[in-house]
Amino acid sequence: MTARTRLRLLGTTVGAAIATAYGGAILLHPTVSSSDHGGGVSHLAAIRQKIHDPRAVVPSREVQQSSLIGASSANPLDILIIGGGATGSGVALDAVTRGLRIGLVEREDFSSGTSSRSTKLIHGGVRYLEKAVFKLDYGQLKLVFHALEERKQVIDNAPHLCHALPCMTPCFDWFEVVYYWIGLKMYDLVAGARLLHLSRYYSAKESVELFPTLAREGKGKRLRGTVVYYDGQMNDARLNVGLACTAALAGAAVLNHAEVVSLLKDDEGKRIIGARIRDNLTGKEFDTYAKVIVNASGPFCDSVRKMADKNARDMICPSSGVHIVLPDYYSPEGMGLIVPKTKDGRVVFMLPWLGRTVAGTTDSNTKITFLPEPHEDEIQFILDAISDYLNVKVRRTDVLSAWSGIRPLAMDPSAKNTESISRDHVVCEDLPGLVTITGGKWTTYRGMAEDAVNAAIKSGKLTPTNGSVTNNLRIVGGEGWDPASFTVLTQQYVRMKVTHRGKVVPGVMDTAAAKHLSHAYGTLAECVAAIAQNESLGKRLAHGYPFLEAEVAYCARREYCESAIDFIARRTSLAFLDTDAAGRALPRVIQILATEHKWDKSRQKEELQKAKEFLETFKSSKNAQFYDGKHN
Question: What are the backbone angles phi and psi of residue 565, rounded to the nearest 5°?
């Protein structure tokens, strides 16, 4: 198909495709849940008050474990969720706010798998929309509509952790300008009332002013301009932890570092009625019973399904997504770059994130492992892709961190490669009592969770008190948060620091630290600032980063932070931002956690060793073996 034919097809099919997706009409109003009417309003208000009470603290890990142990065959949970990623935590929050009795177990930590290894985007999927139009793929189009509907909802429900981000698409001939302008205007149209901001064209001169490192020439052609559109960006790990903690505040018994070792069946062996669980921190095992089990274990969902039926057919086609982190000067603050088509047809993003630049991703077949590692050729592929569009020298030695995540794509036996598989989610019940939710993407976690809970209610004949309310429920720290909230921290708190000689000295709560706390913890940032001030834990953990000692204590007390890895990878993203800095912070992180959790010297030594091994899987320029002939 020629370029001009593609352009004509884009213009002639867009209207028909959108109309078809909505049954002949374009809907520009947000969907309204049945729970938004009548009695659901007072129930929602009660839930909000429970979650956002400033005095509320999540139940201790011991209390949560006791709740799971207390779920007997005579008094089972309504739903037990396996997996504490975005989907599993979303299921827990959706179900508990419907008045159901909920438990959740996670083998490692909340967001320890795929959910903390994303592109950090909350997006509808521009490339999926292009496929939907040119391949007349209704499934892809439905996915885009659903994702765009959920995109705005995610941002609204966690405003301190999510925001709109403009993304620039470079154009090196006038056809590309027209093609991408029309395509991204279509993206705006599909978003409807959930539109973040209108896309627009910028001249070459304006583009370089907005993105100084953008190349003036590429592909042997001069830059003709750029088209800028908007998607969302998030702090993925903290959003996931926030979902789990919000579910706990609402009444769910959530337990990290708790592994399902087997599933329990009824006397006839026909229905799943519970699970045997091992506390990986103590080695203790116990049984928990539930009317329905929801398997939300991401890439590992097939292994859980095979606990119920060893002959179960695999559902997961694992895809590897590699990302790298570069210094902040690679991209300006507040503007991303999208390489719409690399040499092999893939899309690569380069985005500002938490003061650094994240670039990715790859999309290739992989094996399922607990700690996936990026291959050097994948890192080089990303460096090659972005170097064609930048006027700065792209160096392998600039890579501060590199990681791989496994996307749990639903298997399509006829697909030749994972890039062509739809990212839509699948809900199924292989065996009575075991509901599996898999596929999908971060952006649609809330809708996926709602579908899974609906399936569980049907399977277990459960009786919720109300419908889903999560489309209008902010997570902990989000209610009442304002972008200017950080000013309260700078004006009312100081960072008390202990010098190497043991003397306590005051330090300024500078803007960088205050903004970080405000965005990471929302309205609860003052609790962290108070610890920094009153307990003399105001030092930075790593030079050049705003993370404070007080955060370690806070997360241990109020966010189920049970290990050094939990902190450097999920409560903060230091391991993802700068592997070397995370390594330097480890001794102090472990020291504070040891005080909070009463660890002995042996446990502290074990924590240090495990954390160092974990960081070795992040292939930064300092812990990777590579020959860099091109990017030196």
Answer: -65, -40
